[in-house]
Specification:
Elements (H helix, E strand, L loop, with lengths): L1 E5 L12 H13 L3 E8 L16 E6 L2 H8 L7 E5 L6 H11 L5 E6 L2 H10 L4 H5 L5 E4 L3 H11 L4 E3 L22 E4 L7 H14 L5 E4 L12 E3 L8 H6 L3 E4 L3 H6 L5 H8 L4 E4 L15 E3 L2 H10 L2 H18 L2 H20 L1
Parallel strand pairs: 1-2, 1-4, 2-3, 4-5, 5-6, 6-7, 8-9, 8-11, 9-10, 11-12, 12-13
Helix pairs in contact: 1-13, 7-11, 10-12
């Protein structure tokens, strides 16, 4: 089937944490015979910080960040069997959602793909005129980046015809163990952009342990941290390109995952970084959230921390041998149960079943 996908960016992960998620799932859909066009605006300097060239399995359309150009790419929705609008494009989000629905053929499958469902639902609860809330009667389904039963129940209560989580996963051809790189040497490393709804949690789960363990070395990568005051044993890298993620994850003694506020509150929302780190056989320490055991077993495949003191305690007790054992167990688990091949099969089956329902 022909898919028109309107999203933030496929070719750049710069201020765009969903990039590897899109690549993994859409790449698998292409391998299953779907003809995909990904439309992304030239905005937020993403095109200046590309991680990849446009892939051969997808038509990549980068359009100027103007209303005229946006209307131009929306016109192509009429040629698609499936029209997908993802949230978080960052510019013209309302217009893209409304235009994609209006421009789709009557028999086309119309999908909203929410890569930040917990936050979107919070906005919808306080805004009856929220564009997603208003669009639900005209959408055939909502797919989400995660969130489990709480997100499904919330979207269903708002009137979604069908809502299904499609979780992050591992692309083993992209993320895998590599030899250590001295650039990323540390006892604990964290990779994530500085965002208002995560900063306090980073302070608790990363900066507080750094202050408690002054004799250990900490490493932080991601955009926006250059103006943040940090303990002297924390080194800041700035943006880390996708091609460097394997070395970033494979080198330190342990790697930290910190959820955003909304995702931690709802649970069932493993970040892309969880699977990237596990795919590199990293020893992962994650902040606690409901549902973690569905993806990795606490104490065996991941270390779970309730607060910064727990992180410090885990790190203080961690030996290289135990870190290696946890990382290898995590790698085995995600390669068996959490790959993009499995996620692609899930979405492919869903699209085909729902398309038959729409056409009927």
């Amino acid at each position: 089937m022909k898919i028109a996908f309107y999203g933030s960016s496929l070719v750049s992960s710069y201020w765009n944490g969903a990039a590897t998620y899109y690549r993994g799932i859409l790449g698998e859909l292409a391998r299953r015979g779907h003809d995909i066009t990904f439309y992304e605006p030239d905005a937020f300097d993403r095109q200046k910080h590309r991680d990849i060239d446009p892939p051969d399995w997808c038509r990549s359309v980068v359009y100027p960040a103007t209303e005229a150009a946006m209307r131009g790419v929306l016109a192509e929705a009429a040629d698609a069997d499936i029209v997908v609008k993802a949230n978080g494009v960052g510019i013209f989000d309302r217009e893209l959602l409304e235009g994609a629905i209006a421009g789709a053929r009557p028999d086309a499958l119309k999908v909203f793909w929410d890569v930040d469902a917990a936050a979107t639902l919070d906005e919808m609860r306080s805004a009856p005129d929220h564009p997603v809330r208003q669009a639900l009667p005209d959408l055939d389904m909502v797919l989400t980046y995660g969130g489990g039963p709480p997100v499904v129940e919330a979207y269903t209560a708002f009137g979604a015809r069908h809502c299904e989580p499609v979780y992050n996963a591992l692309d083993a051809s992209t993320h895998h163990p590599v030899p250590p790189d001295p650039r990323f040497a540390a006892d604990l490393a964290f990779l994530g952009n500085r965002l208002p709804d995560r900063e306090a949690r980073v302070e608790e789960f990363f900066l507080r342990p750094a202050a408690l363990l002054a004799d250990r070395q900490f490493l932080i990568g991601g955009n926006g941290w250059e103006t943040k005051q940090m303990p002297g044993n924390v080194r800041h890298l700035g943006h880390v390109y996708t091609a460097e993620h394997n070395a970033f994850n494979s080198t330190p003694l342990a790697v930290l995952n910190v959820a955003r506020d909304s995702m931690a509150h709802v649970g069932f929302s493993p970040a892309t970084r969880v699977f990237e780190a596990a795919g590199a056989a990293a020893c992962l320490i994650t902040d606690a959230w409901e549902g973690i055991e569905l993806f990795l077993t606490p104490g065996e495949e991941v270390l779970v921390a309730r607060d910064g003191q727990d992180v410090a305690d885990h790190l203080g007790a961690l030996t290289p041998e135990r870190a290696q054992a946890i990382g290898q167990a995590a790698l085995a688990r995600v390669k068996t149960e959490h790959t993009y091949a499995l996620r692609g099969a899930q979405v492919d089956a869903l699209f085909r079943a729902q398309s038959r329902g729409v056409q009927a």
